[in-house]
Every structure is written in structure tokens, then in C-alpha cells.
């Protein structure tokens, strides 16, 4: 079973997927910070508030110690039922940013693949690089010809 596991892990697709997941997680944190720390405060300022997550509706009883509080996280931790539409908008903007970036990435890769395929059909693509051993043998041959 250990040998099968090693063979499974050593396959290129699994390693590529693992790298993609790690990079995706880091990229997700960057986009979350961009959304929460840069975009949403600006959007919140435009709509009259500095903290967009403070837009919510209280749907139940608020404990006495939190009466009049507008702290979404504190109310949520206290178990107060809330309709947090501001938080939802933040997450939706986050999703749209990620979706747009992925769209642009896929679009670029598709254009590159199409261009390469056209060049291949037209014969205008650069020829593949000559292997180093063949180039070295040619140099040796040329040097030997010069001596004669």
C-alpha cells in the first residue's frame, strides 16, 4: 500500500494539484484582504458607512449587555440571529474578483494556445532548440574540417 501511495503522489497531476491548492489558498487570502481592507471600505464610504459589515438586520432578542451595539461580530458571537447583508455583499465582491481574475487567466491561456496552434499550422513557429549534444558534435565536426 505504501508503494502504491508513493506512486500516486509521484504522478505529475497530483503534485500540480497540490501546488495549485497551496497557491490558490494564498491567492484567496490576498483577494480577501483586497476586498475587506481596500475595496469594501471605499464602497462603504460611498454608501454612508465606513464598515460595510455593519449593515445587518437584527432578527431576534439582543442580550442586555449588547443593547444598541452595532458590532456585527459581537452580536453574532452572542448568538443573536442576524441578517448580515453587508457581510454577504463583501463575500460576493470577493467572489467576483476571483472569478474575474480566473476568467482573465483562462482567456490569456486560450489565446496563447490558439496563437501557438496557428503558428504551427502556418509553419511560422520557431523551430525547436537543437539538443546540446548535437550542437557540440557539429562544433567538433566544424573544427576538424578547419584543420584539414
Automatic annotation (TrEMBL):
Organism lineage: Bacteria, Pseudomonadati, Pseudomonadota, Alphaproteobacteria, Sphingomonadales
Protein name in UniProt: Large-conductance mechanosensitive channel
The keyword Ion transport appears for this protein: yes
SUPFAM superfamilies according to UniProt: Gated mechanosensitive channel
Family per similarity comment: Belongs to the MscL family.
Keywords: Cell inner membrane, Cell membrane, Ion channel, Ion transport, Membrane, Transmembrane, Transmembrane helix, Transport
Transmembrane segments: 12-31, 85-106
InterPro entries: Mechanosensitive_channel_CS, MS_channel, MSC/AndL, MscL_channel
A cellular-component GO term for this protein: plasma membrane
Pfam families: MscL
Protein's membrane topology: Multi-pass membrane protein
GO MF term (any one): mechanosensitive monoatomic ion channel activity
Localization per record: Cell inner membrane; Cell membrane
Main location (coarse class): membrane
Organism of origin: Sphingomonas turrisvirgatae
Quaternary state and interactors: Homopentamer.
